[in-house]
């Protein structure tokens, strides 16, 4: 059989390059707006941080990154859309957080495989969680919180952004350690749960820092934070570690797309999103909400999700967690 000449070898090389990045070979990505699903109502810390990133990334991508809020189901509506409806073309992405990774292990029929049913793009940051109470209420400190719970079994209520969220499970763990009976009241989002405490609907909120403006405004009192060290913004609030719990809860999150995305498209998205994450404008938003940086590149973020899935599976089995 005659060997291929230079022209034939060039054609074969070009064909191979086209097969390596089919989506990019068909035209420049992106050539239309990208949809970013935020699975919370507007106004919370994640919504603000992701909106900032969307605006910044859109400028470098040359296309708008349009934020679409889809709240409910403990923040898993975006993941459901990715797993069941979205095309893997890079034009629909959504927040990936620990409740999404945990969900298959706490329901009877798993809705997705958290590792293999998504294309994980980038790890971003975490939340500053804490517990806040009404400023003019009877509870002034963590010691008061425990004392009230012991004196009033089943009467101390706490709000979170949903059932089986990271903060809900952390509160269940604390309650089990302290042998106290407290009542969980789930809301759709952290800003709603904070407002519920200020209005007197519930006695406390255990959630991300959407409560911060109400603490600074004097309506709420912060009695502890769940970060490794005290918050510079709220230096009087002790950490869980200071209170005797070997716990740090920041719940890192990132962005993912549907299963099967082209690696070239993922690379374009990662690079634009990384630049947006480290942009001073986004840094200011994260500082506003005391959100710790938890950056992972694409390979490292997929590895993080895989390791976390094993952890969540083991925890669900140990605690016999079920929500259906």
From TrEMBL:
Q: Where is the signal peptide?
A: 1-25
Keyword Transmembrane helix on entry: no
Asked if the Swiss-Prot or TrEMBL record annotates the protein with the keyword Transcription regulation, the reply is no
User: What does the UniProt keyword field contain?
Assistant: Signal
List the CDD domains hit by this protein, alphabetically: PBP2_Bug_TTT
The record's section on Pfam families has: TctC
Q: Which InterPro entries match?
A: BUG, Bug_dom1
Family in the record? Belongs to the UPF0065 (bug) family.
Query: What is this protein's record name?
Result: Tripartite tricarboxylate transporter substrate binding protein
